[in-house]
């Protein structure tokens, strides 16, 4: 694996798996940077701390695995598998994330994540089973 991939694996171990949220800022450049969870909604590292805290309130025993990585210059793209357990039932949950990073040296300057929220919340029982198919069929979730 590349240095950038190894750095991001360490980030996911520290922050997601071990819950060391105070380490988030140490992975980012001190300059303004672009971080987006939703397109057009720029966030700062402190908001990432809040977002990861919320995710960790639903699941435990998080394990992040890199399925694919592609590096080009300052950019790194990862396809991740996230295995964890529901806090309430200890039922296994598996979700995927795709993310692109731009680095400045060994620090993240930009990131553009896509987290499969539909699948995640479906497995938590907060959305109906097969919600993606239901929505594609025109079902309205009232």
From TrEMBL:
SUPFAM superfamilies (UniProt xref): NTF2-like
Gene3D superfamilies from the UniProt entry: 3.10.450.50
Highest taxon above the source species: Bacteria
InterPro entries in the cross-refs: Cyclase_SnoaL-like, NTF2-like_dom_sf
Single GO BP term: polyketide metabolic process
Protein name according to UniProt: SnoaL-like polyketide cyclase
Species for this entry: Epibacterium ulvae
